[in-house]
């Protein structure tokens, strides 16, 4: 923040003084017209106007920061972190930065007051400013690349596969109505739907990217898709070459776990020229189709294609274009429907050291 990082600490004396609004110096100016700018996933700039005298006596600023959903209760990741931030008075605007109390894509309220530290260590303070609201940003490509590096470290060796598959209830594939928004019953197509909010809170694809979800992991002993599924007893299978051909780009979207030993990697398959590809460019790290740690397309000397997936992570693949049911086959699976393993709107474990980066969830 203009050469000095904002520090955070509890200060009971400051709180008591703030309540009384008294001190042994001239009345301090109240911050007015708070302005929030340069918002990232774990920082923001704050500035304000000040009217009246007493500016020469200002030694500190107090910033009160709270999550919007509960303004009266501090629900930060670490309970010992106060909402009140104390900063030395520096030229405005200044930067508030800290991954341990700011989460990405989260709404906050903030207000400020000016303070003068007295010889006895107590503070004289102004009245609080008005309260303003803002929302932190998604992960930038910098944070996503940090997450990517963590995922690469545990991906493991590559195993061959031949099909992408999608599990669902029977009526999703066979019904004649249009009750499923992700199905075009008349044209027998699976349509892109908005991705839910499972995974990392700061992933830019959550709640924004539209696509059709597929899996491609295989069982180690059979080389085939598993018989169990958390999403339904019927499975659509399509040849890997139909979704991941030479015209399809692959992007890294997320890496997370759900309080288990299993880790998930979300990849996006986006055909060149599609709206999905336009969304991913500049937002997500692009992976080389034939040289990455998760999903590879290998072209043989004769032009044939073969495909590999990472062994030690579960891949969730988002294909950004509609998929015709006629291009694959639907069959019942013989295993169980393990609903407890569903990742729909699943919350990421914020304490996992394997899949978290310095900016939080």
TrEMBL record:
Which residue numbers delimit the Phytanoyl-CoA hydroxylase-interacting protein-like C-terminal domain? 135-361
Segment Disordered: which positions? 1-23
What superkingdom does the record give? Eukaryota
- Alphabetized InterPro entries for the sequence: FN3_dom, FN3_sf, Ig-like_fold, PHYHIP/PHYHIPL, PHYIP/PHIPL_C
Taken from the UniProt entry, a GO cellular component term is: cytoplasm
Its biological purpose: May play a role in the development of the central system.
PANTHER family, per database record: PHYTANOYL-COA HYDROXYLASE-INTERACTING PROTEIN-LIKE, PROTEIN CBG15099
In the record, the note on similarity to other proteins reads: Belongs to the PHYHIP family.
Q: What name does this protein carry?
A: Phytanoyl-CoA hydroxylase-interacting protein-like C-terminal domain-containing protein
């Amino acid at each position: 923040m203009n050469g000095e990082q904002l520090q955070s600490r509890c200060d009971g004396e400051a709180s008591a003084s703030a309540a009384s609004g008294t001190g042994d110096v001239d009345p301090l100016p109240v911050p007015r017209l708070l302005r929030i700018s340069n918002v990232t996933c774990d920082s923001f700039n704050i500035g304000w106007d000040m009217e009246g005298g007493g500016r020469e006596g200002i030694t500190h600023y107090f910033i009160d920061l709270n999550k919007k959903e509960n303004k009266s209760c501090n629900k930060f990741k670490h309970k010992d972190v106060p909402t009140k931030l104390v900063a030395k008075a520096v030229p405005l605007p200044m930067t508030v930065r800290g991954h341990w109390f700011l989460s990405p894509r989260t709404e906050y309220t903030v207000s400020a007051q000016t303070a003068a530290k007295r010889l006895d260590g107590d503070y004289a303070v102004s009245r609080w400013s008005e309260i303003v609201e803002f929302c932190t940003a998604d992960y930038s490509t910098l944070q996503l690349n940090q997450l990517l590096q963590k995922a690469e470290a545990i991906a493991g060796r590559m195993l061959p596969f031949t099909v992408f598959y999608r599990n669902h209830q029977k009526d999703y594939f066979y019904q004649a109505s249009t009750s499923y928004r992700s199905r075009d019953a008349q044209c027998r197509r699976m349509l892109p739907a908005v991705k839910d909010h499972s995974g990392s809170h700061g992933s830019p694809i959550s709640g924004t990217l539209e696509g059709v979800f597929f899996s491609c992991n295989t069982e180690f002993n059979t080389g085939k898709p598993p018989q169990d599924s958390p999403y339904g007893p019927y499975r659509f299978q399509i040849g890997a070459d139909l979704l991941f051909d030479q015209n399809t780009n692959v992007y890294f979207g997320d890496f997370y776990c759900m309080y288990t030993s299993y880790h998930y990697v979300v990849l996006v398959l986006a055909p060149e020229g599609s709206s999905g590809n336009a969304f991913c460019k500049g937002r997500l790290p692009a992976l080389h189709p034939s040289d990455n740690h998760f999903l590879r397309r290998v072209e043989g000397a004769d032009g044939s294609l073969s495909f590999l997936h990472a062994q030690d992570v579960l891949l969730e693949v988002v294909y950004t274009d509609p998929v015709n049911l006629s291009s694959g086959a639907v069959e019942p699976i013989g295993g169980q429907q393990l609903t407890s393993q569903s990742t729909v709107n699943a919350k990421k474990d914020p304490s996992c050291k394997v899949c978290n980066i310095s900016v939080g969830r």
